[in-house]
Amino acid sequence: MDDIKTVYEFLENAKTFYLATMEGNQPRVRPYGAMLFYDGKIYIMAFGKTNATRQIEANPKAEICAFKGQTLRIECKLVMDNRPEVGKALVEKMPVLKPALGENGENGVMYYLKDATASFYQMMQLVKTITF
Fold it and tell me: Taking the model in full, what pTM does it have?
């Protein structure tokens, strides 16, 4: 559990991370910032029906990249989990999102990272790898 929290805390401290998905044979990358540690899992949130959610539905494999003194790259599958308690937990953590997401995050799509390999790099040298 400590290893997954290390990954989450890095993302939290970086504030912004970049999510790469696939659209056919073309990668698509976009900045994200909404994340949550809940029920022992790292969650990210995408707004409603967007290109990102359609791409994840078609191919759940994704990569996440963040930088804060080191580089973190995560290869994973994104699994949808739209239980109201997960959305509500994100809204409670990030109340600034409430007007757009709704009371229980009903206007967003929550995904948790599964089968993940998180690799930390310092100056292009692999420092640590965490799987969860």
Answer: 0.93
